[in-house]
């Protein structure tokens, strides 16, 4: 199997090279470019593409790569909202993903966002380097006994709940499919109105697009904290700016952003920022943005490479596909 791996970074090459040592018959060519309608022609001579969260795998791209002989799409991520599954099926292209590489990695990153926003360690770091030992402006709150609302209680949501229970927080969960657990199940409105901190862990789909909009912000406790490590378009960014300006939203921690495909995973420090919504968001002192790094641990990278190559191996050898997305 010959795989064209798009949006490749040095760390992808390192983790896939290490994993390939255990396999024969699979070769990978790394392309820095994202897969999209312009770069699809690079797939000539390959029978699989390997893509990440911001590669574009829409109907036009699928039609193009199918015509070039691509028969498999290997997602090296869990979410598959960027792939037109109906088009893949129509062109007889198999789609596999990595369903769970390290839910703990993302859950622990959520905690990093919560604690940094709350205890302002990023500001303290800079102050101390300038011999400024003033505590004014660094006041936080205890997570102990606070109400934390989790929207989407799957693998990542559950890993986060395990940590939050250790903090002694009261955990509320809104998930139409969740079973009973060490948390209180409730509906969305109850979660929005009672939570001090809200963290999003549901997938992005037609039902959840802009789940957090102006109406949701209006229902939140004044000064609540919102964390999103799931997918950017779960939040209406413009409504979010209004909620931050009128202080309805007290803290915002983002690892994902609606228009992130135009920005993330690249050093753009010598470019002029064209996204005014993003510029406004990062201008607030109570907003912390990381560039989709929730997954980014050694353990997760190794798991991603292993499962992706395993998926390729299963397709190449016509074995049952454990991680197929249909
Ligand atoms: P999962 O599939 O295990 O869990 C998703 C949960 O959301 C399920 O329990 C489902 O019942 C629930 N759900 C579905 N619709 C819902 C709705 N309308 N309201 C409330 N809950 C709903 O997924 P997992 O592995 O926990 O990942 C969650 C999301 O995290 C993924 O969809 C992906 O977008 C994102 N992610 C982000 C990463 C990062 O680096 N920041 C890395 C990996 C995943």
TrEMBL record:
Enzyme category, top tier: oxidoreductase
InterPro entries for the chain: D-isomer_2_OHA_DH_cat_dom, D-isomer_DH_CS, D-isomer_DH_CS1, D-isomer_DH_NAD-bd, D-LDH-like, NAD(P)-bd_dom_sf
SUPFAM superfamilies linked: Formate/glycerate dehydrogenase catalytic domain-like (SSF52283), NAD(P)-binding Rossmann-fold domains (SSF51735)
Tagged with keyword Repressor: no
Gene3D superfamilies per UniProt: NAD(P)-binding Rossmann-like Domain
Residue ranges of domain D-isomer specific 2-hydroxyacid dehydrogenase NAD-binding in the record: 111-294
EC number(s) recorded for this UniProt protein: 1.1.1.28
Pfam families: 2-Hacid_dh, 2-Hacid_dh_C
Residues of the D-isomer specific 2-hydroxyacid dehydrogenase catalytic domain: 4-326
Keyword annotations from UniProtKB, A to Z: NAD, Oxidoreductase
GO molecular function, one term: D-lactate dehydrogenase (NAD+) activity
Family: Belongs to the D-isomer specific 2-hydroxyacid dehydrogenase family.
Protein name: 2-hydroxyacid dehydrogenase
């Amino acid at each position: 199997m010959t795989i064209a791996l798009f949006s490749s970074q040095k760390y992808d090459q390192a983790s896939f090279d290490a994993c390939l040592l255990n396999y024969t018959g699979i070769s990978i060519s790394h392309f820095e470019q994202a897969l999209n309608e312009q770069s699809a022609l690079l797939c000539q001579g390959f029978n699989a593409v390997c893509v990440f969260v911001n590669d574009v795998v829409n109907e036009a791209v699928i039609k193009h790569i199918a015509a070039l002989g691509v028969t498999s799409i290997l997602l090296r991520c869990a979410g598959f909202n960027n792939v037109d599954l109906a088009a893949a099926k129509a062109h007889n292209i198999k789609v596999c993903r990595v369903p769970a590489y390290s839910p703990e990695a993302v859950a622990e990153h959520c905690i990093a966002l919560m604690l940094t926003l709350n205890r302002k360690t990023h500001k303290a770091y800079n102050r101390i380097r300038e011999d400024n030992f003033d505590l004014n402006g660094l006041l936080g709150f205890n997570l102990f006994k606070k109400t934390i609302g989790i929207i989407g209680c799957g693998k990542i949501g559950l890993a986060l709940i395990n940590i939050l229970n250790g903090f002694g927080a009261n955990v509320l969960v809104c998930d139409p499919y969740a079973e009973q657990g060490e948390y209180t199940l409730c509906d969305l409105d109850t979660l929005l109105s009672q939570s001090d901190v809200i963290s999003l862990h549901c997938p992005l789909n037609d039902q959840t697009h802009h789940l957090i909009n102006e109406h949701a912000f209006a229902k939140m406790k004044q000064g609540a904290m919102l964390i999103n490590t799931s997918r950017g378009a779960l939040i209406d960014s413009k409504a979010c700016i209004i909620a931050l300006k009128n202080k309805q939203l007290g803290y915002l921690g983002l690892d994902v952003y609606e228009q992130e495909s135009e920005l993330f995973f690249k050093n753009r420090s010598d470019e002029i920022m064209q996204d005014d919504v993003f510029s406004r968001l990062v201008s607030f002192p109570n907003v912390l943005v990381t560039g989709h790094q929730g997954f980014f641990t050694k353990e997760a990278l190794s798991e991603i490479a292993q499962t992706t190559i395993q998926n390729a191996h299963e397709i190449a050898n016509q074995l049952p596909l454990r991680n197929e997305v249909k």
